[in-house]
Each structure stands twice: as C-alpha cells, then as structure tokens.
Design brief:
alpha+beta, 12% strand, 5-stranded antiparallel β-sheet
Length: 408
C-alpha cells in the first residue's frame, strides 16, 4: 500500500512539474512581437489631419456623415501602415490559452492511459474483491481464479498484511500464490513469516519444505529435512512429509534410507491411489541403481585450474562454486560436476569420466566438451542468469588427462 501511495504521489508531482514547465515555456519562452512605435512626425501628421477635418465640419464644409466617413478613412490609412495594430495581444493570449488547455488535456490523458491510474484501479478492485477471491481460491466456491485474478488476490493480501502483519493464514496463502508463480524466494520469505506466527502448522511445514527443496541450496535442503523430520515425529502417517524425506535421501545418495522411506510410504497409500504407482517406480529405480555397475574408465579426464580473485570472492562470501563439463553438442545436462565453497586464489578441480550423471553418457561418449565455472549466489544448482560464470573454448578430449585454465 505504501508503494502505491508513493507511486500516486510521484504521478501528481510529475504532472505538476510538466504543467509548470509548459506554462513557463508558453508565457516566457515565446518571444513577444513588439508593436512598432510610430515616429512622432507621423503621429503629429495624423492629429493635424484630424484637426483639419474637425475645422471643416465646424465651418459647415463637411456634414456630420461626411466627417465620420473621412475620419474613418484617415484612421484606416494609419492602421494599414501598422502604427495602431491592437489585435496582436488579444490573439496571442487566446493562442497561449488554447495551447495550455491542450497540453493539460494531453498530459492528463497520457497518464490515465499509461501511468499510475491503472494501478490504483487494480488496487481498489483487489481490496473490494479480496473476500470473494479468498472464498473461490481457498473454499472452492464459484469459478476458479483466472491468472489476472490471482495477481489481484496477491495484491489484496499484500495490502492487508502491510497493515496487519500478524495474519499467519494470509502469509501462508500469499506464499502459496508466489510459489505457484515461480517466485520461490518471495514464497520462502512469506512462509518464514507464517512459521514465526504458527510454528507447528503441518500444511505450512510441507509447503515451506517444498519451496526450500525447489531452491535447492545445501542449507535449504538441510532446513527442509529438519522441518519434515520434526513433522514426522508428531505425525508418522504424514505421507507428503515421508515422500519428500525419501526424495532428499535419494538425492543425497543414501539408498538405504531412501528405500526404507519409500517402502514405508507404500504401506500407507491404498493401491488404487495414483501415488502408489509412483512409489513403486521409485523403488524399481532404486533396485536398478543397486545392481552392480560395470567398471567405468577414469579417463578421459580434465584438470581445471580455477582462479577467483580476492575482489570477486569478497563480493560473494557465502556463494557456492560449480565447476562442470558439458557436451559441446548434445544435451544440456552436465557430464561431470564438482561443487565447492567460495575461495580466493587458485584451485585445481578434477572432472573425470567416472563422474557421469547417467550410465549411458559421460566425458568419453561426448568427445568434445566445454568446461565452465559458475558462482551461485544462492547455492542452487539451477542456473541463474545473474550468476557470474566463465567458460573455456571447446576441448577435444583425448585418452589422457588434459588441463584447462579458467579465471573470473
């Protein structure tokens, strides 16, 4: 709400400044035409001729009508000479007034169409329909919210929470909206505020853990595991928490723990539940993973000599460094990856054929690779366009170790 008021104040301030500048330009910036001042002898000649006409009329040489006609002709001759032009000032004032009105209308119309007025209208609508949006979104009453209505619902919730921030349900719902829109960091902040108000709410803990796992930083995974573990202690039958714990164990390579979690989950889900088939697929994947794998050659392999200047390390002290190889032509998934904490100076990182992400494709199968390093500010393995990165030229792998140098 504060942002909206600031925006509206900015609109009025900008409109006022434009109006004042325009008025100054019209009234001061346009040079006035100077009315020529007739020479004194011409004025005297006009007065002398007019006096002669008066004398002729008084002497009876001119009638009143003749005098009027002669005086009018004398005046017209003087006007034609440009000495008594009085129309310029009036027409100039009218033109300036018309220009001022046009500028005011155009300025107001532009800002109504393109400026903050639309935001004010949306904010008003969001406030007026907040209760209706909540009933439709949370209670399933009426039609499902459109994408635009979801945005309005979030706007209304933000405004409400700005004045009454102790609404745990409001923060939770706002977090769910932001998470569905891909705003993971904002969703985590909202869930965190809700958790401070209601620390043991199961659906909040599930949603919070889901958002943390999506962001994927090591500390996020650890925090999510802690939340889910505490939830399982109080409710061992919570299938959502159990499924996420199984995925965390599987991601960490703890096959034994992952299998135990999936097997327990299989006993808690009815066989006609769609999730049951998914659990069986996970167990089958673990069985396949547990089978003895044929020996994989260490080579080809690459030594990456990575240098991070102290000035760069100081900018991202909590960041994570990923060093990886990708096929020069092929799938975007890395063929080999190393994950390191931020450091300053030079380190040598090894990428080998044994680090392959899938049994079918590694450094040996790729042939030509691109070696890269990325500084992840959040610690997430998901690439962020704003993360600093550096890459080497495509490298044709051989049968032995090869060296690559990278510097940020």
């Amino acid at each position: 709400m504060t942002e909206l008021f600031h925006s509206m104040n900015g609109f009025y301030l900008l409109a006022t400044i434009m109006l004042v500048v325009t008025m100054l330009g019209i009234f001061l910036g346009v040079p006035r035409r100077k009315v020529a001042t007739p020479p004194l002898d011409v004025k005297a000649l006009f007065a002398e001729k007019l006096q002669l006409l008066v004398q002729a009329r008084d002497a009876g040489q001119l009638t009143d009508d003749g005098f009027s006609q002669a005086a009018a002709e004398l005046k017209q001759q003087t006007l034609d000479a440009g000495f008594l032009d009085t129309s310029l000032g009036s027409s100039s004032r009218h033109a300036k007034l018309l220009a001022l009105v046009l500028v005011l209308v155009i300025t107001t119309g532009f800002y109504i169409w393109k400026g903050q007025y639309r935001q004010l209208a949306e904010w008003t609508q969001a406030q007026a329909q907040l209760q209706e949006f909540g009933q439709r979104a949370l209670l399933g009453q009426g039609e499902q919210l459109s994408e635009h209505e979801v945005d309005l619902f979030a706007l209304g919730l933000r405004t409400k929470l700005a004045s009454s921030g102790d609404d745990a349900v409001g923060w939770f719902v706002l977090g769910r909206i932001w998470f569905s829109q891909g705003r993971v960091d904002d969703a985590i902040d909202a869930f965190d505020k809700a958790l401070q108000l209601t620390p043991e709410r199961p659906n909040l803990l599930i949603s919070f853990a889901q958002a943390l796992l999506t962001r994927g930083a090591e500390e996020d995974v650890q925090r999510a595991a802690g939340m889910l573990g505490s939830l399982m202690e109080k409710d061992p039958t919570n299938t959502d928490a159990l499924a996420m714990l199984a995925l965390i164990a599987q991601q960490r390579g703890d096959i034994k723990e992952a299998r135990a979690a999936w097997e327990l989950l299989a006993t808690q889900i009815p066989k006609d539940d769609p999730r049951y088939a998914s659990v069986q697929q996970q167990l089958a994947a673990l069985d396949e993973q547990a089978k003895p794998q044929p020996a994989v050659d260490l080579l080809p392999a690459v030594r990456v000599h990575l240098t991070i200047p102290a000035t760069v390390a100081q900018l991202y002290p909590q960041a994570t460094v990923f060093v990886f190889a990708k096929a020069a032509e092929g799938p975007p998934m890395p063929l080999a990856v190393q994950k390191l904490a931020m450091f300053s100076g030079e380190q040598t990182i090894e990428l080998t054929n044994q680090m392959r992400m899938t049994p079918q494709f590694g450094l040996k199968e790729a042939g030509t690779v691109v070696i890269s390093a990325r500084i992840s500010k959040t610690g997430s393995s998901n690439p962020d366009p704003t993360d600093p990165s550096v890459s080497a030229k495509p490298l044709q792998l051989g049968a032995d170790w090869q060296d690559v140098t990278l510097t940020f």
